[in-house]
UniProtKB/TrEMBL annotation:
InterPro entries: Uncharacterised_BSP. Residues 1-22 form the signal peptide. The lineage of its organism: Bacteria, Pseudomonadati, Verrucomicrobiota, Verrucomicrobiia, Verrucomicrobiales. Pfam families: BSP. It comes from Brevifollis gellanilyticus. This is Basic secretory peptidase family protein. Keywords: Signal. PANTHER family: PLANT BASIC SECRETORY PROTEIN (BSP) FAMILY PROTEIN, PTHR33321.
Length: 227
C-alpha cells in the first residue's frame, strides 16, 4: 500500500464494535467506513496484527468503489461491505468467500508489505461470480486488478514462455489479459467479467471479442516474452 493510500486514513470513520461468537465469547471488531463502503476487521485471534488489520480495512474501504468501477456489468450492484479475519492456524495465504476475507496470520507476519494480496481478495468479493466459471480466469482477473491497477509500478513477474500457460492463473493470466487489452481493446476484461458474472462465459468469447481464439492469442503473447 502506498503512502498516498495511508494519507487518506483520517477521512475514514473508525470505531470498535463488540459481538459474540458462536461459543458466546465476546469479540471486538474494528469498523472502518467511508461513503457507502465498510470493512469489519477481526484480529481477536491475532492481536499483534491489529495495526496491520486496520490498514488492510482502510485499503478495502478505499478500493471497494475503485474495483467496482473497473469491473462493472449491467444490472449489477457491487458489494460494499467485507469482514477481514486473521486466522492463526491457516496454512497458505488467504481466501475470500462471500463477504469475508480470511487471511493467514502467519503469512502476514512473514510478508507485512504484501498489500496487493488484500486487493486480490477484495476483488473476489466484488466479482461475485456464480460457481462454474474457469478458475484460472477468475484468479487472473483478480491479479489483473492487483498488478495493472493497484501496483502498476511494481516489478513484473517473469513468465517462462516454454513452460507457462494462460491457464496458470494469477500473475501469468493477469499479464496475458493486460496484453490482450492492449491489442484488442481496453474493455476486454470488462466484457469477460460481465460474462462470468452472468454465468455466460464460453471459450468462444475470445474469438468473438478479438477475432482470434485463446490459443492463438496466447501464442502471439508468448512471442513477446524473453526466454
Amino acid at each position: 500500500m502506498t503512502s498516498h493510500t495511508l494519507s487518506f486514513i483520517a477521512l475514514f470513520f473508525i470505531c470498535v464494535l463488540t459481538s459474540s461468537s458462536a461459543q458466546g465469547n465476546a469479540r471486538s471488531l474494528v469498523k472502518i467506513s467511508a461513503g457507502d463502503a465498510t470493512a469489519l476487521v477481526d484480529t481477536n485471534d491475532a492481536p499483534d496484527l491489529k495495526e496491520w488489520g486496520n490498514k488492510a480495512g482502510t485499503l478495502c474501504v478505499e478500493w471497494f468503489p475503485k474495483i467496482a468501477k473497473l469491473l462493472p456489468s449491467e444490472g449489477f450492484t457491487a458489494p460494499n461491505q467485507v469482514t477481514i479475519y486473521f486466522d492463526p492456524k491457516m496454512k497458505g495465504v488467504a481466501h475470500a468467500l462471500g463477504g469475508k476475507i480470511t487471511i493467514s496470520a502467519g503469512f502476514v507476519r512473514g510478508h507485512p508489505d504484501d498489500w496487493g494480496m488484500v486487493v486480490h481478495e477484495l476483488t473476489h468479493v466484488v466479482q461475485s461470480y456464480p460457481p462454474g466459471g474457469p478458475g484460472w480466469l477468475v484468479e487472473g482477473i483478480a491479479d489483473y486488478i492487483r498488478i495493472v491497477h493497484f501496483e502498476p509500478q511494481a516489478p513484473r513477474p517473469k513468465i517462462d514462455p516454454i513452460k507457462a500457460s494462460y491457464k496458470d492463473a494469477y500473475k501469468t493470466t493477469a499479464m496475458f489479459l493486460e496484453w490482450v487489452e492492449k491489442q484488442h481493446g481496453a474493455d476486454f476484461v470488462v466484457k469477460m467479467n460481465a460474462a462470468l458474472r452472468k454465468d455466460a462465459y464460453k471459450d468462444a468469447l475470445w474469438s468473438e471479442l478479438t477475432g482470434k481464439n485463446v490459443d492463438e492469442l496466447w501464442s502471439a503473447f508468448v512471442k513477446t516474452l524473453t526466454p
